[in-house]
Amino acid sequence: MRSVFYVAAVLLLHFLLTAMFCVGIRTIGGRDESRFSEAPEYRNGVECPVSVNKEVVSSCDPDLVHVAMTLDSEYLRGSVAAVHSVLRHASCPENVFIHFIAAEFDPASPRVLSKVVRSTFPSLNFKIYIFREDTVLNLISSSIRQALENPLNYARNYLGDILDLCVDRVIYLDSDLVVVDDIHKLWNTNLTNSRVIGAPEYCHANFTKYFTEEFWSDPVSSRVFHSRKPCYFNTGVMVMDLVRWREGNYRKRIENWMEIQRKRRIYELGSLPPFLLVFAGNVEAIDHRWNQHGLGGDNVRGSCRSLHTGPVSLLHWSGKGKPWVRLDAGNPCPLDHLWKPYDLYKGSLIRDHSSFTSSIFLGFSSYLL
After folding, report:
1. d(Cα 182, Cα 87) in Å, to the nearest integer?
2. Which residues, if any, are the signal sequence (predicted)?
3. Which among 71, 205, 223, 225 counts the fewest CB atoms within 10 Å?
């Protein structure tokens, strides 16, 4: 009698595996069952410059606004919302070109990510680049939060090498933000006095806390700021001159500080401090409205926070708490509702079916022993 149950269980297992495989193909390939709704078509106004080649948009087109951001399975929902917000408020959305930097070993392959982006934004001009994580893996030191140790956080250090050489200027954006103003206004930032980057600065912040006591007690290391008046800035929103970046070999300058950090503990916060060491005090100051950051709370608790005073052009959930996580958990912060209108996520049938089949396997496990 036990052998009959065994045969029946094996046949059922075969059926379930076959069904699950078919569901997987249908869910990934079927446009109607995509995890994201298709965004509305956002078109240029009559005042927008017209590309020479309307059929194929090249990243070398001089009329484009270049935006770079990372793309991975963990923050995919945030990236989609960020792109949606950029297009929704852009005066010339068809002139926006998104450069996505994808991790080499992400669970979702670049091909899968590309399909998601294309199905969600059919007319978007974009390109996906693969970031080789071993480029920076040996330079990363431990941080106060494990998420800050993700190699993809350091991809911004390598934009000058990753992006096409014809791209001489780019706006870098984190994936946990939404733009609520015309991105062209940020693009038109003038980087004066040969400055390499522009970002909102916060000179009232306690700059010393971003580095350890060992750093400040070392006269050689701390001397880096002697000829500057350093101010804190958040690297999640930056306008970057890639020509000056490449000419000045700023990637190597940042890597030098990361190598020192590996030998001596001079800071605690992931990818931010090396940027501060290289650029703080020599940043083109952009209006604070372009980075209302810290909405994710601190790096430990992720508690709710309010907006800074003044107008807002960009909302940034830097910190531990992310709006989509708190909204799904039914415990959102008040400002998380400002992110929700840009969210195009509608769930995944793969996850539902996988949970279903897993529960059935558990129910028949005793017959397979």
Report:
1. 9
2. 1-24
3. 223
Q: How far is CA 171 from CA 57, 97, 259, 274, 316, in A?
A: 19, 10, 27, 19, 15
pLDDT of 129 higher than 70: yes
Sign of CA dihedral 221, 222, 226, 228: positive
Lowest mean pLDDT among 77-91, 136-150, 192-206, 237-251: 136-150
- C-alpha to C-alpha distance for 257 and 200, rounded to whole angstroms: 23
Q: Give the count of alpha carbons within 13 A of 155, CB side only.
A: 28
Q: Which residues contact 124 (CB under 8 A, 6 or more apart)?
A: 83, 87, 96, 98, 117, 118
Alpha carbons 315 and 186: distance in angstroms, whole number: 14
- Residue (of 153, 166, 180, 120) closest to 313 by Cα position: 180
Cα of 263 vs its chain's centroid, Å: 29
CA angle 314, 317, 318 (to 5 degrees): 110
Compare 14 and 191 and report the one with higher pLDDT. Answer: 191
**What is the rounded CA–CA span in Å between residue 197 and residue 254?**
14
Domains of the chain, earliest start first: 56-285 (3.90.550.10)
Look at the alpha carbons of 91, 54, 49, 100 in this order and tell me if their dihedral is positive or negative: positive
Q: How far apart are CA 135 and CA 178, in angstroms?
A: 29
Return d(Cα 296, Cα 336) in angstroms, integer: 9
Q: What is the pTM of this model?
A: 0.83
DSSP state of 307: P
What is the Cα–Cα distance from 178 to 90, expressed in whole angstroms?
12
pLDDT in tens, 278-309: 999 999 999 999 999 999 987 667 689 998 88
